[in-house]
Each structure stands twice: as C-alpha cells, then as structure tokens.
Amino acid sequence: MGKDVVRISSHRVTAGTFRFRREPVFSRVEMKKQPEAEKKLPVLTVIRKIKIPYRLIGLFMLLSLLPIITLGFFSYQESSRAIQNKIETYAVQLVAQLARNLESEMNKLEYNTIEIGFSDLV
Which element (helix H / strand E) includes 20? Predict the structure, then answer.
C-alpha cells in the first residue's frame, strides 16, 4: 500500500498520519555555487552567528568608547605639550638663577680679593 501524498503550499500531508512536515517548495532547484570572489568574508559569518542583543551591546559599547578614546588621546597630547613647555620654562629659569648665584659668588670673591690686597695686615 502506497501512501498518497498531497502537496498544500509548502507543506506535505501524508494520508493516514495527518502529520505536517515542512518541505521547501523549491527543494529540487539547485543553488548556484558562488565564485570565490563573491564568498562571504569569514568575519561577517562569525558576526552573523552572534545573537542580535549581543551585537547591539557590542556596537553601543564601541560607539561609546570611540569618543572616550579619542578624547583621551587628544588630552594626553595636550597635557604632554603643556608639561614639555613647563619643563623648558623651568630649565630656563634654573639656568638664569644659577647665573645670578655664580655672579653673586664672583662679586664676593672679587670684593674679598680687593679687601685682602689693600689690607694693612698682609
């Protein structure tokens, strides 16, 4: 006894069992193979396997971290430049103070030498 098969839309009904089994309408049509250039990238296939809520969370995190990282980079550059300027200014002030101290010591030595040269005790 062969079972009668009736096709309704995309479902197959077998007489006697009344079970529905989905069968694609175009199941016998062969899919064309994609050329190598048209194959999907492996990254895209991995991303497609991730559930949508996790993809959305990842995207929102990326979109929120991008401005923070950019701001951090520019802040670092600006603070580095400001620190470098302060160091240069401090170095110039330090050299100027050292020159004043040396001048002061030289004046003291010159005064002491003149005092000793004109002293009656020597």
Answer: strand 20-22
Joined together, the tokens standing for residue 117 give 């040269």
Strand ranges across the sheet with 11-14: 5-8, 11-14, 20-22
Angstrom distance (rounded) from CA 99 to CA 75:
36
Whether the model pTM is above 0.70: no
Pair 5, 13: CB distance under 8 Å: yes
Q: Which two tokens stand for residue 89?
A: 């200014």
Residue appearing with tokens 């430049």: 81
Question: What is the Cα–Cα distance from 72 to 104, expressed in whole angstroms?
Answer: 47
pLDDT tens-digit map of 10-52: 555 555 555 555 555 555 545 555 555 556 678 888 888 889 9
**72 membership: H or E segment, kind and range:** helix 52-117
Torsion-angle region of 18 (φ positive above 0: left; ψ -120 to 50: alpha; else: beta) = left
What distance in Å separates the CA atoms of residue 68 and residue 87, rounded to the nearest whole number?
Answer: 28
